[in-house]
């Protein structure tokens, strides 16, 4: 068995497709009416569809998981993030951990937690 995809819930599929393309270079593989598969295995599920499946409320910024990306040019990434999405909500701005890795954490447009770090 292998992990195939990771699904996150979003309010606006088009805005989210643009966000993940602009910042991470992810492209659409399949777009199926509220369910979009992006490269690297990320799936965007429209919030109202997911809510109907679960019959439960969606809780943004719940901090129970994160999407983790690695980027060699982290300073360039942060500049692009601030230019394209100046009102993004940070958990922590660019920091350097004691082991030398630089990371930034922020929420996407729907409150999904993202960490971008330099390769280990």
Task: Summarize the SSE layout with pairings.
Elements: E1 6-10, H1 13-24, E2 28-31, E3 35-38, E4 42-46, H2 47-54, E5 67-70, H3 74-84, E6 90-96, E7 102-107, E8 113-117
Parallel strand pairs: 1-4, 5-8
Antiparallel strand pairs: 2-3, 3-4, 6-7, 7-8
The CATH superfamily label reads: 2,3-Dihydroxybiphenyl 1,2-Dioxygenase, domain 1
Q: What percent strand?
A: 25-35%
The largest sheet has its strands arranged as 1-4-3-2
Characterize the overall form.
globular
Q: How many E-type strands? A: 8
The first-level CATH class is given as Alpha Beta
Question: Helices and strands, in N-to-C order?
Answer: EHEEEHEHEEE
Low-confidence stretches: none
Radius of gyration: 15 Å
How many separate domains? 1
How many helices does DSSP assign?
Answer: 3
Derived structural class? alpha/beta
Overall average residue pLDDT: 96
Helix content: 25-40%
N→C terminal distance: 27 Å
- Going by CATH, the architecture would be Roll
CATH topology: 2,3-Dihydroxybiphenyl 1,2-Dioxygenase, domain 1
Biggest β-sheet description: 4 strands, mixed
Task: List its salient traits.
Glyoxalase-like_dom, Glyoxalase, VOC_core, 2,3-Dihydroxybiphenyl 1,2-Dioxygenase, domain 1, four-stranded mixed sheet, Glyas_Bleomycin-R_OHBP_Dase, 3 helices
Fold and architecture overview:
This is Glyoxalase. It comes from Dorea phocaeensis. The strands form 2 sheets. The protein has a 4-stranded mixed sheet with strand order 1-4-3-2. The protein has a 4-stranded mixed sheet with strand order 5-8-7-6, with helices on one face. The model has no long low-confidence stretch (mean pLDDT 96). The chain has 3 helices and 8 strands. It has one domain: 2,3-Dihydroxybiphenyl 1,2-Dioxygenase, domain 1 (Roll), CATH 3.10.180.10. It has helices at residues 13-24, 47-54, 74-84, and strands at residues 6-10, 28-31, 35-38, 42-46, 67-70, 90-96, 102-107, 113-117. It is of the alpha/beta class and 120 residues long. 12% of the residues are buried.
